[in-house]
Amino acid sequence: MAGPVQSIERAAAILRLLAGGPRRLGLGEVAASLGLAKGTAHGILRTLQHVDFVEQDAATGKYQLGAALLHLGTSYLDVNELRSRSLNWADALAARSGESVRLGTPLEGRVLIVHHVFRPDDTFQTLDVGSLLPLHASSLGKVLLAFGTATVEPDREPGLEAYTRHTLVDPERLARALTEVREVGWAAEIQEMSMGEAGLAAPIRGHGGLVVGAIGLSGPVERICDGQGRPRPHLISLIREAARAISRDLGAARW
């Protein structure tokens, strides 16, 4: 029986390394972390980049997981499993936050809502399961965009739609916002899809740390944000705790 192929083992190690943290890594960091010569690491990275498993930031030269690999990561996970693993945590998040909670996955350039927990009060609410949200104007969508789980398709969306005057439609501003999402680990929408409404979301990860969905809460802007329009820290903590708990149930390592 043939033994393992060293180049494939090294490529797998690089992919695991890039999946293990939220930030991009430079060639020197990858080589040093895995004990590889820079030339060897560079050759493997270039090959992974050629098949879209790795992307290189044009400004910094650093590497991150590519969209093709992240899309493969979602294919193993049935939406029903994601939903079933999230039920208890979504209910608890709604109870603790006092806001409505939604679970989203990518579908044809949009966010598909696969689970929705009503806000725990007596106000009239409409079930959102099965609805599609824009990627660029929703906190759920921003998470999926930031971590490469979804992409805005130019042929489908030649121009980003402005739902309110706060919607991020400029590609450069949106790119900066998505970079910040990757750095802080959560996303916000503040009156970007509907005036008077705001939302927060965090990534749900599966095996290998790949982002497979997002969980978010939403409500009136005065409840989600403070007087300066900044998301309330305790709500950020709640949404991130729920996302981590679901991720652990799906087999993601702790982070």
From TrEMBL:
Xref: Pfam families: HTH_IclR, IclR_C
Record bears the keyword Transferase: no
InterPro entries, A to Z: GAF-like_dom_sf, HTH_MetabolicPath_Reg, Tscrpt_reg_IclR_C, Tscrpt_reg_IclR_N, WH-like_DNA-bd_sf, WH_DNA-bd_sf
Domain (HTH iclR-type): residue spans on this chain: 5-67
Entry keywords, A to Z: DNA-binding, Transcription, Transcription regulation
Protein name, as recorded: IclR family transcriptional regulator
Highest rank taxon of the organism: Bacteria
Ranges for domain IclR-ED: 68-252
Source organism: Streptomyces cinerochromogenes
This protein's record includes keyword Transcription regulation: yes
Gene3D superfamilies the record matches: 3.30.450.40, Winged helix-like DNA-binding domain superfamily/Winged helix DNA-binding domain (1.10.10.10)
